[in-house]
Amino acid sequence: MAFTMHSHSGQFCPGHAKDELEVIVKHAIQIGYKTIGLTEHMPRYELSDLYPEELDDPQASLAALTPRHAAYLAEALRLREKYSEDIDILIGFESEWIRSSDLPRILSLASDPVIDYVLGSVHHTAGIPIDFDAAFYAAAVKACGGTEEGLYEVYYDDQLEMLQGLRPKVVGHFDLIRLLSEDPDRLLRGWGAGVVWEKVVRNLHFVKEYGGLLECNTAALRKGLAEPYPAREIAQEWLRIGGRFTFSDDSHGISQVATNYTRGLDYLESLGVTELWTLKRSTHGEANTEEQSGSQLVEVSVSIQEFRESLKSAST
Fold first, then answer.
1. Considering the entire predicted model, what is its pTM?
2. pLDDT tier at 289 (50, 70, 90 boundaries)?
3. Are 304 and 275 in contact (CB under 8 A)?
């Protein structure tokens, strides 16, 4: 039963993604997905949060974000009903943890009964994007004391704030901070004074304690990294404490659906992982359900072998 818990469309993520949401859902069905988690980015609320491509008319760009989110939820509901016999559509959104003062707004979005789950992610550190380009990344390093070690420390502190505030069912690209690093493959255990690794372990334990899932995100591979998110030493620590993985392509259009899935599955098997976890919307009273943001979800185990067999054709 192949799936993704993290996806975007050009319709609701213009500038970063391509293709209409319905086209992406139809393609996912065609290649064998049985579940797709729709996780368009939540609105941002400050002019300072806009990306360069949104700055031609900043006020208009900012004003469009909240109505776009409402339009996304309406379209996701329509697609869920239309394709219910072919695929399970989960409706979520990806958080933007830019400042802790945004927490009430994020919780308000999460409380919408349409929302099945929140994908908890951090794309900013010290209010600066850390995965957009080298210039922004350098600015984030400078804002965090001028060293990458300092940036990593602040990133994992920001991530803990996000985790504590949202307790997201799925934690997105746990170590996204390494994407634009000068040494993305560095081992964190023993780096510098060891503070970064301590914060990594602290955050993993917190996710484990509240029952969150870490995604194995194959977007890292298409962006040139040697391993998916999270990197091997983090994945090993997550497994050591009994953590569970879900799986995501973090696609931004049909060309990226299931991209590098074979490599991602091989990576997990090399770690000794034999099963992945996804979610299913349940009927009232079904066993092993949990309430989150107004919907009841069942955690579903999928063997990696079954996952592989269900993929019909893709750039895997």
1. 0.94
2. very low
3. yes
